[in-house]
Amino acid sequence: MKNKVVLSLLFFTLLYSVLTQFYGLGKLPIVQWDESRLAVNAAEMHSSHNYIVTTYEHQPDLYNTKPPLMIWLQVLSIKYFGLTEWAIRFPSALAGLLTIWLVGLIVFRKSNSVFTTCLAMLILTTCDGLIQLHGSMTGDYDALLVFFLLAALFQCLRFLENGKQSNLIAFIVFVSASIMTKSAAAVLFFPVYGFCFFYISGFKKIKILMAAILLALLPFLIFIIYREKLAPGYLNAMWQNDFGGRFANGKDGHEGLWYYYIQHLFTFRFNWFIWCLVPAIVWAFIKQNKIIILYSGAIFIYLLFISIAQTKLEWYDIPLLPLITIVISLTCFDVLTVNKSRAFQWRVYLIIAVCLSHSLYQKMMFTSQRKGLRLSMDIYTISEKIRVYNARPDVLYYYSGPYDAWNYFYTLKNPLVKKVDYNTIKVNDRMIVIPSFKDSIQKRYSFLTLDSNYYDQTIRITGIKNR
Prior knowledge:
It is a single chain. The chain is α/β, with parallel strands linked by helices. It has two domains: 2-369, no CATH class; 377-464. 63% of the residues lie in helices and 6% in strands. The chain contains 19 helices and seven strands. It has helices spanning 2-22, 34-48, 69-81, 85-111, 114-126, 142-162, 165-187, 190-201, 206-230, 234-242, 244-248, 260-269, 277-287, 290-308, 320-338, 342-369, 381-388, 405-413, 438-442; strands at 55-56, 59-60, 395-397, 417-419, 430-433, 445-452, 457-464. The strands form two sheets. A five-stranded mixed beta sheet has the order 4-3-5-7-6. The protein has a two-stranded antiparallel ribbon with strand order 1-2. The longest helix has 28 residues, at 342-369. The radius of gyration is 25 Å and the shape is globular.
């Protein structure tokens, strides 16, 4: 009977994590800013077969200067699933799911408890920062980055425990993959590896760590040199966008106080279990629980470095989420193991059940109904219309903003719709226009309104006024 309950709990946990991660994955339009930029990069790379130089509007992209591992995976996904929202997001969603399962594996190896393993996976699945915009539900870099960072840390600790060369090689591979995913963000995790090596073996194996890091950097260095050769200016742009400029100065106005990430973790980026973090760390040091101390140290070090960086964005804390989950889950197991009072244990189980039930319900509502989604749909009216447009003749869409990658992506997905320059509009052009830009068109062109609603209008140009 006990085995059936355990297996049922494990089955529910795995099924819940899959459904929560993949349900409605392609429902939302491609999201403004980063996801849309990557989507355009991937769509153009898929059509051009230029797998080294990422492009935007078929020109070398010197704004998004991250290494292209994520974009390569998106291109592969497009090849098999077509140019869809689902294909753009599949690599990120898969990385999110693998992160959840890897956390379960880490916790199980240290606790040998299926209950604690399921608790860890459910905590991470229901936290607000992972399966979220700019997390594993959109085609951004961060979910893939967090998987590679966690996998690298896992292999790092295994190597330090058993000294096996296979674990060291796996560590190098995962570190290299994290750098090829998001360069500077991966480098910020290097001090975490240094802390683990020093805490476990002192200075004895520091040379091994340094050699491993250099080997892991090699593919990145080869790539950036070759990319610079193919499209000069890349190295300078990458330094300004991803390294010195972003760390030393608030990029694009994204600034915050030193406690920016701490505040967000305790308000909306995790879930109720975040309040167990500080007691868990205190418990680890009192009981000298080595593994919890290691993951607690990783939390502190990475949090310190992203807090020092002047550019602050809420999704920079995603690598912290699995680490926090591991610390809380293993501490829970430790507490229940030390105190064997059945009355105490059942009280703990009851508190966990209440908190977890609320989190499961909240995440289910978010997944099924997008309740609590922090996204204004007003700016997606044009992209939504282009998304489903399949009539003839061609429609040219007009947008006067300086940047509209989320609309431009759908012109790549739907060749019937093209982007038009304001000064090159011709008679009989059919256009989708945001009402706030209608007046500027009216100054130069006469037109007939074909379709109109609160958010956008479809018009046909009937004449050109004197310019």
